Every structure is written in structure tokens, then in C-alpha cells.
Structure prediction request, 163 residues.
Amino acid sequence: MTALRKPLTAAAILSLATLLTAGCTGGTTASGTPSTPHTKSSAGRKAPSEGSEEGQGRRAKAALEGVSVDDPEFLESGLERVQDGVHNRSSLTKGETYRLSIACVGTGTVNVVIADKAPESVPCDGIPTGRRVENAPERLRIDIDAATGATGMVAWQIDSVPS
Prediction:
């Protein structure tokens, strides 16, 4: 019985070593495509792709980083799905001048309405656009809605303009 155990033990060890080696290094999948090795730091986490909502949101926010949230000019900002839209009422100092910046990342366009003025179309191309709000009302209404078929993320930011 001991003579039979030694070959089985050796075979089991070799099989286990082969499985561990194949599982810990990059190789190919059954279809022949390269597999990606997993490390402890990346296991269970997926890097957001540029087309994902997280990636689009990060790009939209980055496009508006002209004024930091720590700057005294910064008032408020937000990030929403294009399909959800933005419907905000911002409290401002009446009569002051502000700048509303918008960046949309995705496909299509969004329609921007500021303080009941005529809607303006903004493409979801990641390029920031700004609107100057002079002689601001006490409550500024901001509405951003998706045009037909638009998708992605839209970021907005209000900054005061120093006199």
C-alpha cells in the first residue's frame, strides 16, 4: 500500500503545482485570447472605462476644474446623468455676477435653460461651455435636459465673478 501511495502523492503534487502555476500567471483562455493576471490590489475591482458612467462623470468634472472647491469664488457644483437632467435652484447674492460652467460627456446634446431664458443646446463632447449671469436673481433656476437620444453625464458649476 505504501508503494501505491508514493506515486499518487507525487501525481497529486505535480497536478496541484501545475494548477497553481497556471492560475497565478497570465496565459491564454480556451479561446486562445490572452488572459490577464490578477494581483491582490486589483482583484475584485474594475477600472472604469471611458465609456462607463463613472468614466464619463470623471471626465465631465475634470473639464470644469478651473476653479477649485477651496477657492472663495466657488459656489456650488453637481454631476448628473444626462437622462435624469439637472433641475437646480441656486441661492445667489442678488445683483452680483456669476459664471455657470457646463460640461457634458457622452452622446447627443443637452438643452440648457438658465433663469427662464431661451434654451441653448450644448453638445456632449466633453468641451466645457460657460454662461455669464449678470445682475443675478436671488434664486437662479438651472434646467438641463437631454435632447432626444442623448446619453452620458453632465457636470455643472457656479462661480462668483470678482468685481
About this structure: Confidence is low (pLDDT under 50) at residues 8-48. The longest strand covers residues 98-114.
